[in-house]
Amino acid sequence: MTFFLRDETEARLRAFGDRRSRALQWTAVGCWALMLVMQVVTLLRFHGDPTGDAARYVGDALRCVREGHFFPAASDFVGGGVAGTGYVNLLIVLLRLTGSVRAAYWTNLLLVQLLLGSVLWLAYNATKSADVCARTAIVFCLSVPYWAEICVARTEILFTALAFFALALLYGKRSLPFVTGVLLAAANWVRPLAPAFLAAAVWTLIYSRAKWHAYVRLLAGVLAAVAAICLFTYRNSGEFVYQPTVSSGNLLIGANEDADGSYSDIVFSEGKAGYIPSEEKAAMTYKQINARYSAAAKQWIRENPGRYILLMPKKLFYMYIMDTYSGDVYFDNLVQTSGREYVREVFSALRGQGRRFTSADAVICYGQAFYMLTLAAFFCGVIRSMRKGYWRSLSFLYGIFLIGTAMTMLTVGSGRYHFPYLPILQITAAAWWQAVSNTTSCGRRKKTTHFQKKLDNTE
Is the backbone peptide bond immediately before 72 cis, with ω within 30 degrees of 0? Predict the structure, then answer.
């Protein structure tokens, strides 16, 4: 009995399963091939320079390579904080091996394949349905961020691949909770969102009725990796630091007089709550800077609790409404595609005003439309799972989504912050698609097939 139609008989599902399953599998393979083609074409045609956070990470890595050490060094804790530490160290290794930043893009391409395999393994083990697995592959491979994000030297792909691969290792004939713990700690070194996945790992062990030593091995893996990372950082910089040290800045962005829920850094401008003169900031440690930002944010929250709470729906809106953040690469990073200004440009181009509508715009518009379709199917899937009772099978994914979203709501909303949760949207959307397809197929057979009428009479 499949997990999403407990009220249907197994015989009814078999009646229309085999041929459709083969078609779905071949369609999934075709979509995977399309994704590979789009990834390679995007990578070969991209010649832009890193911008934004990617420029920061690449700049830190290049400097460390020149100076002959890993990241961070003692100097990195003065005048600012460190971010994306695990990813910067991966860039350092790749730069030392190849001398080119493009090695990071090819690595991203491979990491997306690892992510796809992990997501499909989780989808199958959660639903016990090969058809849901195939539909998940189709939705995954047709999603534009996996085509374009490979050409961005950011933390999204590495973190998400490590986190979902870690969860995937808890399933199968031989669970590997120690390795899961190590990988989740490594993922958190890249981006501080792993607590949501750690909670999912614990829930998975509870749901599968794992023995006590599985929890011990999971915790041992986390602690061992965290200790190793802290010792590595201390040896390199003299500081026992594990996570990025810029979270207080993000908190202030989402909690100040000018905050609107989006990722706007106006609060650091002169005359604003987060402004620190450059000469003063250059002499401050990251702890002093964090204390300044944190105090300003907490003071504003205490004085404006209602406004802070009312900002959360806006943060949620900015986090999930747009999926165009990776589109910069189609313009060699010369056009920013993640803001409202780009949307205005596209509408102007479609009306024949301003610049012309390009093939890059077409890909980005398709990606946004497909994302909105996936998001709608996700919400439909959540509602159906609650009604039909199969939400328990997907509860570890829902937990990640809820905890990760809540963590973001405390700070600031941004479109690319939903990237780690795209696989959850895709698995849930695929399960809903499969359930609706089964219901429709059963209904069609009920009208036209004598065998199905006999089957109905026996229920």
Answer: yes
Per residue in 257-270, pLDDT tens?
999 988 888 999 98
User: What Cα–Cα distance (Å) separates residue 82 from each residue in 72, 73, 314?
Assistant: 7, 10, 28
At 132, the pLDDT band (50, 70, 90 cuts) reads: very high
Closest listed residue to residue 400, CA positions, set 375, 420, 386: 420
pTM: 0.91
Strand partners, 285: 78
CB of 148 within 8 A of CB of 161? Answer: no
Indicate the residue type of 40. Answer: V
Q: For residues 295, 297, 300 and 301, what is the CA-based torsion angle, rounded to 10 degrees?
A: -110
How far is it, in rounded angstroms, from Cα 377 to Cα 372? Answer: 9
Extract long-range pairs of 194-199: CB within 8 Å, 24+ residues apart.
Answer: 194/159, 194/163, 195/403, 195/407, 196/399, 196/400, 196/403, 196/404, 196/407, 197/163, 197/166, 197/167, 197/400, 198/222, 199/399, 199/400, 199/403
How high is the pLDDT of residue 459? 34
Give per-residue pLDDT as tens, 267-306. 999 889 899 998 888 888 888 888 999 999 999 999 999 9
- Cα–Cα distance between 153 and 101 in angstroms, integer? 8
Q: Are 181 and 165 in contact (CB under 8 A)?
A: no
DSSP code for 272: S
Measured at the CA of 244, the angle between CA 240 and CA 249, to 5 degrees, comes to 125
Residue 13 in tokens? 């599902």
Angle at 113 between CA 378 and CA 417, to 5 degrees: 45
What's the average model confidence in pLDDT over 145-160? Answer: 97
Positive or negative: CA dihedral 10, 12, 17, 20: negative
Q: Residue 420 has what DSSP assignment?
A: G
Q: 444 falls in which pLDDT band (50, 70, 90)?
A: low
Q: Looking at per-residue confidence, does 10 or 386 come out higher?
A: 386
Per-position DSSP letters for 129-170, written without gaps between them: -HHHHHHHHHHHHT-THHHHGGGS-SSHHHHHHHHHHHHHTT
Per-residue pLDDT averaged across 217-243, rounded? 93
Structure tokens at 237: 């910089």
Instruction: Look up residue 285 and give its DSSP letter.
Output: B
> Tokens 């829920």 identify what position?
261
Six token digits for residue 458: 């026996």
What is the separation of C-alpha 358 from the centre of its chain, rounded to a whole number of angstroms? 28
